[in-house]
User: Fold this.
Amino acid sequence: MTFKNERKAVAKTMRRLYKQRLTTSSGGNVSMRNSDGYVFITASQTDKSCIKWKEIIVFNPKGENLTPELKPSMEFEMHQEIYKARKDVFAIVHAHPVYASTFAVTDIKPISSMTGEARFVLGEIAMVDYKLMGTEDLATNCASVLKNADAAIMKNHGAICIGKSLFQAFDRMEVLEFTCQMYFNTLLLKNCKQLEEAELKRIDDLK
Assistant:
């Protein structure tokens, strides 16, 4: 049991999140699921800025830790519940980017209807109600919301994005943060021109 390629891919994505200033050295987590149902996730209490492939935990399809020397992320149950709810999802990125996290601590919901790219990549941005991190309540809450969304703001916490691949989940996180920053700027300018409903439907239909 090694799964070096999968573990290297997860570690690389986590380092990339830190490099792009989408999370802190101790915050966030990344996972992927392969076609055989094995799940690979960043370990707890590791420096996410320089995490190595040997610090990625391997779970078999039964949920058993095949790398017991590593402590699972406290959000592992959240990842597991999302995978159960979305059979089409094979990667999850949870991070604490500044602008997305800023909206997480306000009552303002960011929108994806400003540009075609944001709408196409993100769809409708969802909101997950606050639950204590690492709890079953947070896991079930996130999984329920993400049944019908690919990107979400986690209230008083951060952001989470899912995808068919690590790249797609990472791309959604990056676009989500860019979109939140852009929307934040429009609030300062007090002027935001959104795409019309007919155009949004055309973009949604492309997917």
In short: Residues 4-206 form a domain with the L-fuculose-1-phosphate Aldolase fold (CATH 3.40.225.10). The mean pLDDT is 96. Strands lie at 29-33, 39-42, 56-59, 91-95, 126-128, 151-154, 158-163.
